[in-house]
Design brief:
The structure is a homotetramer. Chain A has ten helices and no strands. Chain A is mostly helical and about 220 residues long. The longest helix of chain A has 28 residues. The two termini of chain A are about 15 Å apart. Chains in contact: A-B, A-C, B-D, C-D. Chains A and B meet through helix 1, helix 2, helix 3, helix 4 and helix 10 of A and helix 1, helix 2, helix 5, helix 6 and helix 7 of B.
């Protein structure tokens, strides 16, 4: 009994530990660096400046929640891994490359909305970055499935069919990118909605039964 | 004996580990990014510039101690967890969202005090951010209690009634926000006092007896 | 059987754990700070500004992949360690000192390509930083070998002769630094190629057999 | 035998783990943020600009090595801990508060040397920050000794008398601060020397015998 409870720890490779540590580092730093993009600008009273900076707060929240949702999905994925392999680590590096890039288009979008400037290009760039994070995250998951890197499902446990869940998120991003070419602010609202959707509905534990059993 | 000592490690879920890693990342980065807000400005001799920058040092210390106190409370909370659940992870993301935001109002407040500018709005924003961190931290704790995510109290261990401790901190913040509308510098002094209070008096171990027993 | 599987965890010293934590911190922060170097500049339409900023994206990708490859190599190295010693920790600090420095020449190179300015000096500085990371990483590995800090190779496991692998990378860097004195943009292309080479071909697990065995 | 080897892991409290994680975060971020202070300035050719920026590189190296030495000492300290207590966590927060502050005086010193400006004030501030890091680190160690938070020395193990080692470092800092009031550049050279001294001679394992025994 005691030894079966320890199994998950023992079976996890050290590579998994460091993959998680490096990934947690990039996710948390990218999320925290977003604050450096927030700025207030004259003219106006202090109150006006603070209120007119709403696009910066909004873009901060959308990007933070998107990174948070990506981190939730990533932590569920790595939790199910029994081992890593060289290609998985490389796909993971690509995910992190785009996650770490996100503060840049976030800043462009917020700047553009704030100054009523040409938002379309920046919003499209932002949408493409979000889309890339999702596609690469799905690739990470698909590769781990194909190579049997996950721990096998236990009896009574339902194996989730991840790709079917993917469609609403990918579809939402594609629609938003197209809409953003005409109505960039509507696209930003959709990105916010998708982030909320992923935070609220997608981020469920992959193996709820086993999780509860091994933790009580 | 040996196996009972290992219990706390074995019972902790991997989700808890990554929740802690991501949270530690955000807390430590937000605390360290505060230094980027510190700046000296002409005119004046070097000594005058350094001394006149006191609002930046003061705001740095207040925000660092506030984040430090929030981290202390957070580490005590997660230490008592036997497992996490999806909603707990989401409330935690909200806590981190506001913690990671803190460098921005910190900078506004320090800039404003330094240039004798309209401080009230910025100090109010700062106070609201501090208040949000506390309320969300309490929500995290309350949810973990309600869902029985903490390890059960052992015999001879006093169960702390957290909500009663909450009142002086929340009350202090509310009073300071109101005072800040008229006397912003007094409000900042109160925030410093609350941070010291939390560091000095609130940050006691939740389970002092068990903690000592399992560690010796 | 169970106890032999646990061996790798038990034999690893705590120093190794913190060496990894600090290193993961520096690697992930340096990689994520690279995004702060990306900027767009007038004049031009938004689309022109975004497209003309390609040197920043390219430099971001080259440096991110280089840091990623260095991290992959570093994680394989520390995974094989059974213990650390004081000199290993110091060589490691030197590796990290240069890794953490990389965002600075990255920015210089991107700025220079973007403004068609004197690239040669900056590209040379960038190449020297990349070369230093590799030489110090090899020194870290060579020292760990000489001091027998790695776990001994098991039966049936081929001991890799690291120094032979080193030559293409070091040679590529040296050639690129010389070429960069005349054709700086060609040098940057070589650095990109070397980063891809390291990501794609060098980052193989040191002990593939043992890794798989202990993880299943 | 196997269980005695596991002892150090089992006896370590979870608080120690998070204290290390948060501390590693602050140390590695502060060390990596130093790169943001490096800048080149016109006029001059690219080569002149890069060479004239030597004070930035030098200050980067001095501060990075100082933080690295402080991290080495900190990791040795926490490795010997069997448990933490609330006051130790608070003293640790003070250490981190000053470590995270270091990028600011580092920038001031480098800027001042670069522009031949009034260095004395900035160099004094820098020296006081270094002195504070050392004094607080010693306080952390002294408190852990007084409260018996360290694992007891084993037979055949020599108990180090830390305070005697302290004198050359504290003395070096005090002398450098005084010298810096007249000859600021000499003081910077001393800080570099002290950082090298701490890296090269002080950072020896506290418990060399036990360390080797438990790791082989």
């Amino acid at each position: 009994m005691a030894s079966s409870e320890e199994m998950p720890r023992v079976r996890r490779s050290l590579s998994t530990t460091r993959m998680e540590a490096f990934s947690d580092g990039v996710f948390s730093i990218a999320a925290t660096l977003l604050v450096l993009d927030i700025a207030i600008h004259p003219p106006g009273t202090a109150l006006e400046q603070v209120l007119h900076a709403w696009p910066f707060y909004f873009a901060y929240v959308v990007s933070f929640l998107t990174i948070g949702a990506a981190w939730l999905g990533h932590s569920q994925l790595t939790e199910g891994l029994t081992r890593t392999d060289p290609l998985l680590l490389r796909i993971n590096l690509l995910v992190l490359l785009v996650v770490a890039f996100l503060p840049f288009p976030t800043k462009l979008v917020a700047d553009a909305i704030h100054s009523n400037a040409s938002e379309r290009v920046f919003v499209t760039m932002y949408g493409l970055a979000l889309l890339a994070i999702r596609i690469l995250s799905f690739a990470l998951d698909a590769y781990a499935r194909r190579e049997h890197l996950y721990s096998p499902p236990e009896a009574g446990e339902e194996q989730q069919d991840e790709p079917r869940e993917v469609l609403p998120v990918l579809g939402g991003y594609l629609v938003a990118i197209l809409i953003g070419l005409v109505l960039p602010r509507v696209a930003i609202a959709i990105y916010f909605g998708v982030a909320l959707y992923m935070i609220l509905f997608r981020a469920l534990p992959r193996h709820p039964l086993r999780a509860h059993r091994s933790r009580r």
